[in-house]
């Protein structure tokens, strides 16, 4: 404090004090009443909000919140944890925007030997307009790389052979001790369907039944969740989603 | 890197109840907002609660965003900071949500104004730099740490009214500089 105490009355910069939260509760209520009928005063409040928020944006270091908070928020807003899984899949589906080159590079490719139709490239997987197709032609080889979710290091490459057999190779990350990793396929807006639990070794071979095999189509999503040993006891993902991938047409 | 235009687009989609857009907005902005809240509250558990409340509010009130004329980040930081201050000053009435009661656009509160504000991002920093160091750091402390007049009066060991006069003068100088 470099000032001598000062007795000249100072204009009260009420709008700034309001934005800063310096007013007493009574002053605040009175000021808010004025805001409703004085547009110029409101404009001044907006200006201060903008200036101070800009200062905070420039000066405050980001701190990553714990990953469980996202689940908690989505559970509060949308209900079940499975909704949160769905959301994350939808998030990766909507990669057309706010995306990273890394995620795009990791998007899987669907190799169609017959090349029936040209579609958008993997850079613009828009919303599904054609709806899930019923299965895929025999002789099609599907491949995708699963992208690790925030806070996860798990990377997987999945190949689906013409016979329907899935080869899942862990290319990054590992199993958490005492936990299992389960692979799910999600077609359209349907609930995730389990494809099985992964082995501890790098390579797992899974043989889905005919009904599950039908779910593989362009735009279907694959996800890996963290589960108790032996896999999910409920038939739906119960733990964190560790990695996600979408099958897109070239 | 998420641009303000990206965030604008996400907020428009959130208004249409697009959950994927909400998830993307959370990914892009939650670390900054958590940093802002943590700076005020200094308490992780409390900050986590407030962050949840903030995003619940963002989902429910995305339609109020345009009325403010703010840039997306300004709108989000303002919500986060007010929620943190309300918790810090728990006991008083919560800050009125002026976005709810004031349905009219403030004059000049338009997307263009937001663009101008973004262009002037450095102005507040330049004007703070023109203040004496102790005055600038007092203003910073009030916004970023949530200091009250009482806190500051105790800290500097001066009467409350002296503190008010001193800080109001700083705010008036700042206002003059920002308007010039």
Automatic annotation (TrEMBL), chain A:
<protein>
    <submittedName>
        <fullName>Anti-sigma factor</fullName>
    </submittedName>
</protein>
<dbReference type="InterPro" id="IPR018764">
    <property type="entry name" value="RskA_C"/>
</dbReference>
<dbReference type="Pfam" id="PF10099">
    <property type="entry name" value="RskA_C"/>
</dbReference>
<dbReference type="GO" id="GO:0016989">
    <property type="term" value="F:sigma factor antagonist activity"/>
</dbReference>
<dbReference type="GO" id="GO:0006417">
    <property type="term" value="P:regulation of translation"/>
</dbReference>
<dbReference type="InterPro" id="IPR051474">
    <property type="entry name" value="Anti-sigma-K/W_factor"/>
</dbReference>
<dbReference type="GO" id="GO:0005886">
    <property type="term" value="C:plasma membrane"/>
</dbReference>
<feature type="domain" description="Anti-sigma K factor RskA C-terminal">
    <location>
        <begin position="100"/>
        <end position="241"/>
    </location>
</feature>
TrEMBL record, chain B:
<keyword id="KW-0805">Transcription regulation</keyword>
<keyword id="KW-0731">Sigma factor</keyword>
<dbReference type="InterPro" id="IPR013249">
    <property type="entry name" value="RNA_pol_sigma70_r4_t2"/>
</dbReference>
<dbReference type="InterPro" id="IPR000838">
    <property type="entry name" value="RNA_pol_sigma70_ECF_CS"/>
</dbReference>
<feature type="domain" description="RNA polymerase sigma-70 region 2">
    <location>
        <begin position="25"/>
        <end position="90"/>
    </location>
</feature>
<feature type="domain" description="RNA polymerase sigma factor 70 region 4 type 2">
    <location>
        <begin position="123"/>
        <end position="172"/>
    </location>
</feature>
<protein>
    <recommendedName>
        <fullName>RNA polymerase sigma factor</fullName>
    </recommendedName>
</protein>
<dbReference type="InterPro" id="IPR007627">
    <property type="entry name" value="RNA_pol_sigma70_r2"/>
</dbReference>
<dbReference type="Pfam" id="PF08281">
    <property type="entry name" value="Sigma70_r4_2"/>
</dbReference>
<dbReference type="GO" id="GO:0003677">
    <property type="term" value="F:DNA binding"/>
</dbReference>
<dbReference type="GO" id="GO:0006352">
    <property type="term" value="P:DNA-templated transcription initiation"/>
</dbReference>
<dbReference type="Pfam" id="PF04542">
    <property type="entry name" value="Sigma70_r2"/>
</dbReference>
<dbReference type="InterPro" id="IPR014284">
    <property type="entry name" value="RNA_pol_sigma-70_dom"/>
</dbReference>
<keyword id="KW-0804">Transcription</keyword>
<keyword id="KW-0238">DNA-binding</keyword>
<comment type="similarity">
    <text>Belongs to the sigma-70 factor family. ECF subfamily.</text>
</comment>
<dbReference type="InterPro" id="IPR039425">
    <property type="entry name" value="RNA_pol_sigma-70-like"/>
</dbReference>
<dbReference type="GO" id="GO:0016987">
    <property type="term" value="F:sigma factor activity"/>
</dbReference>
């Amino acid at each position: 404090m470099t000032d001598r105490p000062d007795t000249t009355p100072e204009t009260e910069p009420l709008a700034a004090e309001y934005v800063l939260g310096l007013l007493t509760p009574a002053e605040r209520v009175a000021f808010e009443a004025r805001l409703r009928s004085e547009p110029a005063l409101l404009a001044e409040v907006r200006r201060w909000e903008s200036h101070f928020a800009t200062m905070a944006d420039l000066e405050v270091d980001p701190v990553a919140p714990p990953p469980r908070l996202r689940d908690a928020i989505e559970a509060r807003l949308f209900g079940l944890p499975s909704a949160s899984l769905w959301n994350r899949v939808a998030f990766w589906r909507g990669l057309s925007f706010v995306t990273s080159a890394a995620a795009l590079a990791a998007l899987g490719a669907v190799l169609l030997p017959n090349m029936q139709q040209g579609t958008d490239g993997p850079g613009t997987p828009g919303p599904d307009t054609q709806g899930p197709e019923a299965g895929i032609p025999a002789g099609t080889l599907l491949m995708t790389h699963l992208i690790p979710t925030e806070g996860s290091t798990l990377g997987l490459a999945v190949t689906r052979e013409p016979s329907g057999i899935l080869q899942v190779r862990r290319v990054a990350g590992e199993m958490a001790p005492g936990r299992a990793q389960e692979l799910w396929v999600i077609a359209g807006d349907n609930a995730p369907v389990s494809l099985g639990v992964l082995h501890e070794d790098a390579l797992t071979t899974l043989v889905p039944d005919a009904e599950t095999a039908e779910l593989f189509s362009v735009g279907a999503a694959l996800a890996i969740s963290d589960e108790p040993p032996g896999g999910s006891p409920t038939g739906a993902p119960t733990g964190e989603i560790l990695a996600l991938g979408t099958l897109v047409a070239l | 890197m998420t641009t303000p235009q990206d965030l604008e687009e996400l907020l428009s989609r959130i208004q249409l109840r697009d959950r994927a857009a909400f998830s993307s907005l959370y990914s892009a902005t939650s670390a900054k907002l958590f940093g802002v809240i943590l700076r005020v509250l200094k308490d992780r558990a409390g900050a986590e609660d407030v962050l949840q409340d903030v995003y619940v509010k963002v989902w429910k009130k995305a339609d109020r965003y345009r009325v403010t004329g703010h840039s997306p980040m300004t709108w989000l930081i303002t919500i986060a900071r007010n929620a943190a201050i309300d918790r810090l000053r728990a006991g008083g009435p919560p800050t009125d949500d002026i976005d709810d009661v004031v349905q009219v656009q403030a004059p000049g509160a338009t997307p263009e104004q937001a663009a101008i504000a973004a262009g002037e991002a450095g102005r507040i920093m330049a004007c703070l730099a023109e203040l004496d160091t102790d005055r600038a750091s007092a203003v910073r402390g009030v916004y970023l740490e949530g200091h009250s007049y009482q806190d500051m009066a105790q800290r500097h060991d001066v009467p409350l009214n002296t503190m008010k006069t001193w800080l109001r003068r700083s705010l008036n100088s700042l206002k003059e500089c920002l308007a010039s």
